[in-house]
Amino acid sequence: MKLTINKEKFVEGLQKSASIIPAKSGTAFLRSVWLKAQEGVISVMSTDANVEFTGNYEANVEESGFVGVQGKLFVDFVRTLLPGKITLSLDKARGSQNGQRSPEGDADEPSVLLVKQGRARCELPVSTADWFQRFSEYPEEGAVIWSGDFLQDLLDKISFCIDEESGMDAITCLFIKPVENGRIDVCGLNGHQFAMKSFIHDELFARLPEQGLLVQKQYLQNIRKWLGQDEIEVNFTDKRFFLRTQGGNETISVPRATYDFPDYTAFLSRLEDDATKLCFNRKDAIAVLSRILLFNTDAEPCTYFDLSENECLLYVQGKDVGSVSDSFAVEYNGTVKRIAFPTKKLIEVLEHFVSDKIEMTITSEEGPCGIHGQDDPFYTVIIMPMKIMDQFYSSEENA
Q1: Low-confidence residues of the chain, pLDDT below 70?
Q2: What pTM value is reported for the model?
Q3: CATH number of the domain at 266-393, please?
Q4: Cα dist. 19→41, 127, 222, 351, 366 in Å?
């Protein structure tokens, strides 16, 4: 292998590749960034045994080759180099004495990848292509164009409601479900919160399986790091979910999960049954809740809401830290006069909206509460209130 490439052309791809490599792994295959040089292109590949990344970048290739190098060290070294041309070549490992390289290497010595730019140079041991395990191929037929920045926003609005545990269950997954007339629901659930964003995409709707598609939360961060603002191609097989840049320069794929997602329409329908509306300014509510949060403890994690027609009084009283109260203006004509929410989680929910005006649908003191925003179309978050028992809070009920 011998090639020259501009650092700017592939350093971003190298960093995406390195972000997938496991921090600790005894397997050389997983610790490696794999480099394949051929016909004017260098391909960069990495995997953690589940997520697979491939990037193809223009290069002046003099000799083809295919090797693996210690990924994080290689990428960190390239990152420190100056902008401009870098030379990569496969060479024989050579010993040194007093810092000087010997003039010739032994024919039986192993190969190394020599990385050079001006006076900067390093040698990295390599793994041969025999160690490489073939990646899943991107299915060309049926690919759908999707907006990268829209998907990025979608993941941000949903993923915070997906269960953090690494257990094997549907609530650890992002759920993409075709509904009707081109409408697609994207959902996340963690037992006490639920988020759903709906949108219309006729082509994607036609390609999605009727039962929907599940991707575990642990893979979403890799997708978010990879995504840019440009349009992307989306495709999937029975086992994997693929995303690719238009033109095919970069591809990332993750496994599909095979669980059954709960019927979320059951608790969405509760928002329509004799529910009342509480309307307020989002920024005002966050400011008040942030002050209340200072007085929350592990034993008292919630805020009481005393509701009246034009005002919401918020307060918390802790045995160890004292008490605090504050209020903000609301519009309300419901029958629920007192309710409690986990303060930190309610702030997190409100911060995922952009609307100034928020409408909260209250079903009961202990039932699911839906949150909508005027400038957040087709976006719903459900949060469960806390049970109030003689001035104390019980544990959260499942949605």
Answers
A1: 25-26, 93-110, 166-168, 274, 389-399
A2: 0.88
A3: 3.10.150.10
A4: 22, 20, 8, 27, 42
